[in-house]
Amino acid sequence: MFDELCPSSLNPIRFGDKWAALVIRCLEGGPRRFSELRVPLRRVTPKVLTRSLRALERDGLVRRNVHAGRLRHVEYELTPVGRSLLEPIAVACAWTERHWDELLDARESYDDAARHDR
């Protein structure tokens, strides 16, 4: 799912923004630090990832936890509402995977037609 040729970019269902569903899937296994999210989400700039995390937090899907102490750090985790999106996201990803070739063909046909119309 985190590969450059991932079908998620063709997913017609978007939660929050382009990267929100990927962030939610990254947090599926539990809390993660920003730097840990950057590994699977390497295509996302830090600025855009921060914006996505803030939007998800604002929508009540992600919780930002600041751990005080000698080594202060921040972790992000799914809220119960955010966790409830995992199933619909999985369904949308499965649909996209089943229709991957059709979606790519449609985009290619559209782009070819647009080039010829110029």
Automatic annotation (TrEMBL):
Coiled coil: none annotated. Pfam families: HxlR (PF01638). Residues 6-104 form the HTH hxlR-type domain. It comes from the Bacteria. One of its GO terms (molecular function) is DNA binding. Keywords: DNA-binding, Transcription, Transcription regulation. InterPro entries: HTH_HxlR (IPR002577), WH-like_DNA-bd_sf (IPR036388), WH_DNA-bd_sf (IPR036390). This is Transcriptional regulator, HxlR family. The lineage of its organism: Bacteria, Bacillati, Actinomycetota, Actinomycetes, Micromonosporales.
